[in-house]
Write a structure and sequence with these properties.
Layout lengths: L5 H30 L5 E4 L6 H7 L4 H8 L12 E4 L19 E5 L3 E5 L8 E6 L3 E8 L2 E5 L5 E5 L3 E3 L15 H17 L11 E2 L2 E2 L1 H10 L9 H4 L4 E3 L9 E4 L8 E7 L2 E5 L6 E5 L9 E6 L2
Length: 308
């Protein structure tokens, strides 16, 4: 057989070169598909983006992001440029999403009488009075108030400073049953009066708010604080609290106000019934009991407020 014709030899050479080029193309294409995971996507860089923020948004890592895009961690990102996002990194379990069971804390009352109320406020209705040392379950906290459950299952709110951690030593669980509102209020107010009267003999001290010495508003503030009622340290300011009460409707525990100087209301005390009130009177007299109908206080009487 003789030598190949020149034309045939050129055709074979041409086809061989084309096949080699095609093989190179498919080899490169295969490399690209192998290098980029099937789950890869793209992300357009926005103002303020960093490699860290982009990685976090797309559940990947900075190392994978830089590798997929031929970048370095110090590379400057160009706004509007698209980045290849590699396959998402496996998400770590969200430990914060664990369901936590509600727990209750055992507490007890540490005051001689603490009022159980229907809500976390001194304006909420009083349910009953809790004796000192009674064991309760604290279900939740609401500011300065605690939602508690009594041994008989009755729930309500108690001022937190009147509670202490741990079980109490009182055996009077039966006394904590829900009482009729009028009876409960009378009992609570009676305890407040007893607390106020126990301060008789305490000296008068201007600006005083403790058993070391009281002024008039410091005294009422001290007594009411024992029962979860916060009052300002000013007789005039206290006159703006609660609801106004007519003199004919006064009840034990109401605040009574007097004008003993030219600057308006300047004195306050706690009505105890029978036309009498207990107050931090003045230097030399201290905490004592007087009549609102006396020759001195009757013409200076300026009204009453019911708080708590």
């Amino acid at each position: 057989m003789g030598p190949e014709p020149p034309i045939l030899r050129n055709v074979v050479l041409f086809m061989t070169r084309r096949l080699n080029a095609a093989a190179c193309f498919f080899t490169v294409l295969a490399f690209v598909f192998v290098s980029i995971p099937a789950s890869a996507s793209s992300y357009k860089i926005k103002k303020g983006d960093t490699l860290s923020s982009i990685a976090a948004k797309n559940n990947t890592t900075v190392a994978k992001l830089t590798k997929a895009n031929g970048l370095r961690e110090t590379s400057i990102l160009t706004i509007g440029k698209s980045l290849t996002i590699p396959g998402k990194a496996p998400q770590k379990p969200n430990r914060a999403a664990k369901v936590t069971r509600p727990t209750s804390t055992v507490v007890h009352t540490n005051a001689s009488s603490a009022c159980l109320r229907t809500g976390p406020s001194t304006t909420s209705r009083k349910v009953c009075v809790l004796p000192s040392g009674i064991t309760l379950k604290m279900l939740s906290r609401n500011g300065n108030w605690a939602k508690v459950a009594l041994p008989n299952g009755v729930c309500g709110f108690v001022y937190r400073p009147l509670l202490a951690t741990g079980p109490g030593n009182s055996q009077n669980s039966s006394t904590t049953a829900a009482a009729a509102p009028p009876k409960a209020e009378t009992s609570c107010d009676s305890s407040l009066i007893q607390t106020a009267l126990a301060c008789r003999g305490t000296s008068y001290r201007r600006g005083g708010t403790s058993r070391g010495g009281f002024d008039c508003s410091g005294f009422t503030r001290y007594v009411y604080a024992k029962y979860g009622v916060s009052l300002p340290h000013s007789s005039a300011a206290q006159a703006g609290k609660g609801a106004a009460v007519a003199k004919s409707d006064l009840q034990p525990g109401d605040l009574v106000f007097f004008q003993t100087s030219r600057r308006g209301i300047s004195h306050v005390g706690i009505y105890i019934g029978g036309g009498n009130f207990v107050h931090a009177a003045s230097r030399g007299r201290g905490v004592t009991v007087d009549s609102i109908n006396s020759s001195y206080y009757a013409p200076r009487y300026r009204g009453a407020r019911r708080v708590g």
